[in-house]
Amino acid sequence: RDMSRAFSDLPFFVMFLRAAAMGATAAQARGLDAAGVTLEAEAKALIGTEDAAWPALADATVAEKDRLGFTGRVSATDPLLRTGEMRDGLGHAVDEKGVTLGSTSPLMPFHEFGTSKMPPRPVLATTMVRHGHYAAEEAAGHVIASAVGLFEPLPPKKRQGVS
After folding, report:
1. How far is CA 83 from the centre of its chain?
2. Does residue 3 surpass a pLDDT of 60?
3. Listed residue (161, 163, 140) closest to 150, CA to CA
4. Integer Cα distance of 39 and 57 in angstroms
5. pTM of the predicted model, to two decimals?
């Protein structure tokens, strides 16, 4: 996109800058929320997948999940997915400083960090490592577009090779 502009005189340019500054706060909030929506969706998509970075579930765990009917909905073993409570507890919050991705589920810390009997299967950290840069670009696209007077946010670069 061509974002260049020409201004006929200095007072018009000053007016433009003032308007851009006033819109920056709202654009930042929109951008951060868009980034949060993206991160939340990516985190939720991890629940139930056999992620290559995670250890496989123990045979006894898979057998118990099979017995209870908790497999085969998303993947063969549906790691971290039983009732959907943990997935549904994922969410994001936005403030003036940024986006927080988190969970209301009391089970999430045990899975995120592991226990003495269970290896970690991090959802929040994995999401931030894999998708945080894209989400930051998404948020910045709103602010940059507002600063140069565009009505639509600049799109982030297409994600390639994200697992």
Report:
1. 22
2. no
3. 140
4. 25
5. 0.82
